Amino acid sequence: MLIPLKPGELQRLIPAVATGNQFRASLGSPQQVLQRLMIAAIGGVITFLIYNQAQLGSRWGPVWLVISVAFFLYVLWGPIVEAGQRNATLRRYPAAALFEGEVAD
């Protein structure tokens, strides 16, 4: 049985920001998690060291600190952005089909 969606319902059903289940699915394999962790650690440490050097009289010190914090939090916001991009591609279409089923033995 098909139930037509009213205009705007698709945007309500597919969120713009990732949900908890989408976050878990976007985490990926342990290799991807480790890759994100390494990017966050290396990028965060490098930008934090630049911040420590730039803090000595440069007006760009706080900018480097914000970039460093963003790198360190990449492990968390990386999967959220990835799931949000997937949702954005689905929200682009004017119509969609959603399926919910149950496997019975």
How do the strands and helices of this protein lay out in sequence?
Elements (H helix, E strand, L loop, with lengths): L8 H5 L6 H8 L2 H25 L6 H12 L1 H18 L14
Helix pairs in contact: 2-5, 3-4
Number of strands: 0
Report strand %: under 5%
Q: From N to C, what is the helix and strand string?
A: HHHHH
**Unreliable stretches:** none
Assembly level: single chain
Shape summary = elongated
Question: Largest sheet, if any?
Answer: none
Task: Please report the distance between the alpha carbons of the first and last residues.
Answer: 22 Å
Q: Count of helices? A: 5
Mean pLDDT: 87
Structural class: mainly alpha
Q: Helical proportion?
A: 55-70%
Radius of gyration: 20 Å
Written overview of the protein:
The chain starts with 8 loop residues before the first helix and ends in a 14-residue tail after the last helix. Helix 2 packs across helix 5 and helix 3 (30-54) packs antiparallel against helix 4. Helices cover 65% and strands 0% of the residues. The protein has five helices and no strands. It is mainly α and 105 residues long. It is elongated. The model has no long low-confidence stretch (mean pLDDT 87). It has a domain at 29-91. It has helices at 9-13, 20-27, 30-54, 61-72, 74-91.
